[in-house]
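Figure 6 in text form: structure in, sequence out.
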């Protein structure tokens, strides 16, 4: 899937999680940082690709991206597996623990969960592509949905661009509109300054 589809999937998954498991008290800072973490999580598994949006937006990203790609075993390898999710969860928890003294009004646990929702949504979306994902690495089997590779989506082609992305957008709009009072209440009463 393309970066924008991963972004939309991460955001839609986060909305669904908020509806199913409403957060308690939030600060505006937590809400904003959690949304940013969710977007980063949505593209984080692609750090194993030197041309990924993550590396393109850093001054020396191309050089670092090529190094990381070799270290991670190439695209759709470690970072696209359950092992990769565990590794990203551990590293992001370390980073948030380190940064927490600087973010006094941020619930880092909620930020961490939002990041992981993005990461997991990335893998879930890539399951639908022709390439699949090696979920059980080091077992070298790539999984995909449906199991027949010919029926899966080609990244960046018409089905993704004109059906998957708009479909995710419709689901996100439906989640917000069908739970409108809930989101208004969340914004008005639960987000504390």
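Output sequence:
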């Amino acid at each position: 899937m393309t970066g924008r589809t991963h972004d939309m999937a991460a955001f839609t998954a986060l909305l669904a999680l908020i509806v199913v498991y409403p957060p308690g008290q939030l600060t505006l800072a937590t809400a904003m940082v959690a949304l940013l973490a969710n977007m980063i999580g949505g593209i984080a598994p692609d750090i194993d690709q030197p041309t990924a949006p993550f590396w393109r937006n850093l001054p020396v990203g191309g050089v670092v991206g090529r190094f990381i790609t070799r270290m991670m075993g190439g695209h759709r390898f470690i970072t696209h597996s359950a092992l990769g999710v565990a590794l990203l969860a551990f590293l992001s928890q370390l980073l948030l623990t380190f940064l927490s003294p600087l973010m006094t009004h941020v619930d880092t646990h909620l930020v961490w969960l939002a990041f992981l929702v993005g990461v997991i949504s990335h893998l879930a979306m890539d399951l639908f592509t022709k390439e699949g994902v090696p979920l059980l690495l080091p077992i070298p089997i790539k999984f995909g949905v449906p199991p027949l590779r010919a029926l899966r989506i080609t990244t960046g082609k018409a089905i993704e661009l004109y059906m998957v992305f708009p479909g995710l957008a419709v689901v996100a709009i439906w989640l917000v509109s069908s739970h409108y009072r809930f989101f208004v209440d969340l914004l008005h009463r639960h987000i504390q300054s």
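Caption detail: DSSP finds eight helices and two strands in the chain.
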